[in-house]
Amino acid sequence: MAKWTAQHEAPEPLEGPIVGTVAGGTIIWFALFLFQLPFYGWFADRGMLWWVWTCAVGGVLGLIGLWYVRGRDAALKRHAAEQAARDEAGQAGPAPQAG
To answer: What tens digit of pLDDT does each residue of 41-72 get?
Structure first.
């Protein structure tokens, strides 16, 4: 059996409001956790405590994700600024002399 190879190039990844998306998801996880806390006994009686703790862990992992995407976003902006400065310096340099 031959190894499969792609017939076309993969598309560029979509860029969007990543920090806002992760922050929104984190808020939702924590809100679900807080909403379920008053019903802790009900969940415990039915053996479904994992619902409560899944929301708590989702919120904590969301905080880690938020830290990660904020750092990524800052690095992308820093790289774009460095690239723009490099391009500007290359265009504003002395003109080559003929001779």
So the answer is: 999 999 999 999 999 999 999 999 999 999 99
Residue percentage of the chain with pLDDT more than 70: 91
Q: Tell me the mean pLDDT in the region 71-75.
A: 93
d(CA 69, CA 64) in angstroms, rounded, equals 9
Q: Who contacts 33 (Cβ-Cβ below 8 Å, separation ≥6)?
A: 52, 55, 56, 58, 59
Among 67, 91, 85, 55, residue whose Cα is nearest residue 18 = 67
Q: Decide: helix, strand or coil at residue 73.
A: helix
Distance between CA 78 and CA 68 in Å, rounded? 15
End-to-end distance of the chain based on CA atoms, in angstroms? 62
Could you tell me how far CA 82 lies from the centroid of its own chain? 22
pTM of the entire predicted model: 0.71
